[in-house]
Design a protein that fits this description.
The protein has 564 residues and is α+β, with helices and mostly antiparallel strands. The chain has helices at residues 2-14, 20-32, 35-51, 131-138, 151-164, 195-198, 203-206, 223-227, 247-260, 265-276, 311-314, 331-343, 350-364, 380-390, 399-420, 437-450, 453-458, 461-477, 522-537; strands at 76-78, 87-89, 106-110, 126-128, 144-146, 167-168, 171-172, 177-179, 186-188, 480-482, 500-502, 507-510, 517-520, 553-556, 559-562. The protein has a single domain, classed as Glycosyltransferase, CATH 1.50.10.
Length: 564
């Protein structure tokens, strides 16, 4: 491919030439001449625009069509294959499938260890609506601007509107609030899993069997007995999903508001002060899974609720119930939180500085991916931490050294993947995720975020350049093209003959007990690929400064240009 060769040639020419700032424009020009990369980025944007849930003519797949407006959607449990837009009709006692307009769908893959399928996916999935997917897809759109209001701006506005519905109390939650099956209560939980199925989770408790010790999470004393006691926990098994607001989704809301809503500064400050109050300091309990951090680490806790409340208050359904009663520290959540705080102007806050030290240690000890309690994907931590470093401008002492260790490990992973899977040349591995597309997009973003200066000082600039170029080549060559379903709805972005690009949806998130359920999304994977392709064209690896100093692409009539 021409873009692969020109990228390597230009890298060799510039290795001993101009400074990073001087050669960036040359690299941008060279990369933009690769029409394959530009076209793939546009095709990825088409996927995001086309898959945004809206009221479509007729009854279409719930990944595309609004179920609550117009004539509704098809009530199906989709098959896992992203190229197969079919599924099983919902069973007779199963409620009709629901979703929210303006969002992007994800799919819940449950009990995949019991039902063995290729790449760790479930044969039949459950559509889900959650804030994480919509807010995460929103972020890459900061790198693409429109001269006039068009499909990209419409996606941004709809996503911002959607995020506001996930506010719960002072923070934000993974799911929206909805009426409980127990009259008089409101809870959060997955839209399309009937509450009766949750009763299966409490069968062991009701039959006086203990929870297996290897279920994956530490349990607060008395929590098991309380969950089955209606006088303490009137909503019963719904409490498994009625989780509190969390630092992760609250951070994602901060990022979205800070980047796309200039009138939300006061709200961003309030959210920042909220997460700063929930830290790993002088705690009564410890989750045995996060021993990587040490005690009293000062890092940010996952759940925005006091875990030391008396058991009856701990089961107050109004503000959510911490899974298994004990809070924890997740390294990916912490990377997202410090990124949000950096954007919000808290980059020099002592809590941010100390947390960066903890995350740097996770790099030193290679604690990832197991330090991501909710993020089993091997490349999620490098993506999140390097995004905080580069896009959030968090270049504190120690960060550059950590980035150096990380870039060496990423380049090695790509080489190891190539030796193990010769047909996957250029790809990165996902660890618990057995697919390669999302892993490659995350890793390429991480490399671009680290920048060329660090590998140059380490004497591995050529390997660094090749890792990025071959990763981009992999994303371009492994896309699956699909006809745009609704071209009339994305005028200004769609051009006749253009097709949308899909990639294999990777495992990006799991439940508190990782074996219970995992989340995948075609839209999320496409968005991370779009971010990688945009940063590649922008020569993010040659840029200096944070997110706001590094520019964006403009898109008009299906073509890309650089913004001045």
């Amino acid at each position: 491919m021409r873009f692969f060769m020109t990228a390597l040639v230009s890298a060799a020419m510039l290795m001993s030439g101009p400074t990073l700032a001087q050669d960036r424009s040359l690299v941008q020009k060279d990369r933009m001449e690769s029409k394959e990369v530009e076209e793939t980025l546009i095709q990825g944007l088409l996927t995001l625009a086309d898959m945004r849930i809206r009221d479509r003519p007729g009854k279409d797949h719930p990944y595309f069509d609004s179920c609550s407006t117009g004539d509704g959607c098809r009530s199906i449990l989709p098959f896992a294959d992203p190229r197969n837009r079919f599924g099983l009709p919902t069973p007779p006692l199963w409620p009709k499938i629901r979703n929210y307009p303006g969002e992007w769908a994800s799919s819940i893959h449950a009990l995949t260890q019991l039902i063995k399928m290729p790449q760790g996916q479930a044969p039949v999935t459950v559509p889900d609506a959650n804030m994480f997917v919509t807010a995460s897809i929103l972020y890459p759109l900061v790198f693409v601007k429109e001269a006039d209001k068009g499909p990209v701006r419409a996606m941004i506005e709809d996503a911002l509107t959607s995020i506001k519905y996930y506010k719960r109390g002072a923070g934000y939650s993974f799911w929206r609030e909805q009426p409980s099956s127990t009259a008089g209560y409101r809870v959060i939980g997955p839209l399309n899993i009937p509450h009766q199925i949750l009763d299966v989770l409490t069968l062991a408790i009701r039959s006086a069997r203990p929870i297996p010790p290897d279920h994956g999470a530490a349990t607060r004393p008395g929590w098991v007995q309380a969950i089955a006691d209606k006088s303490i926990n009137p909503i019963g098994s719904e409490s498994f999903f009625n989780i509190p607001s969390d630092a992760d989704d609250t951070a994602l809301a901060m990022i979205a508001y800070r980047l796309f809503d200039p009138d939300s500064r006061a709200q961003v400050r309030e959210l920042a002060e909220l997460v700063l109050k929930h830290r790993d300091v002088s705690r009564t309990f410890e989750d045995t899974r996060d021993g990587w951090k040490g005690k009293n680490s000062g890092a940010f806790l996952t759940w925005l609720k006091d875990e030391s409340l008396p058991i009856r208050e701990a089961f107050n359904s109004k503000d959510g119930i911490i899974p298994f009663g004990i809070n924890n520290v997740d390294c990916v959540v912490n990377a997202n939180v410090v990124f949000a705080l950096g954007l919000a102007g808290y980059g020099k806050h002592p809590a941010v500085t100390s947390t960066l030290g903890i995350l740097n240690r996770a790099v030193d000890l290679e604690s990832w991916p197991y330090c991501g309690l909710y993020y089993p994907h091997k490349m999620m931590f490098p993506y999140a931490l390097t995004r905080a470093y580069r896009d959030g401008g968090l270049s504190h002492p120690g960060m550059k050294a950590a980035m150096g260790r990380l870039v060496v490990r990423l380049i090695a992973d790509q080489k190891e993947t190539r030796l193990r899977e010769p047909k996957r040349d250029g790809a990165f591995s996902g660890g618990a995720d057995q697919t390669y597309d999302l892993a490659t997009a995350l890793a390429v973003n991480a490399l671009l975020n680290i920048g060329r200066e660090i590998p140059t000082k380490l004497g591995i600039a050529a390997g660094y350049d090749q890792a990025i170029a071959s990763g981009i080549k992999y994303l371009v060559s492994h896309k699956v093209l699909s006809d745009v379903r609704y071209p009339d709805a994305i005028e200004g972005l769609y051009q006749p003959g253009l097709r949308a690009a899909l990639w294999e949806p990777g495992l990006f998130f799991t439940a508190s007990v990782q074996r219970a359920a995992g989340w995948r999304s075609e839209g999320y994977t496409a968005a991370i690929a779009v971010e990688a392709l945009a940063k590649y064209l922008l020569a993010w690896d040659r840029a200096e400064g944070g997110l706001h100093e590094s520019g964006a692409l403009s898109v008009q009539d299906g073509a890309l240009n650089f913004l001045d």
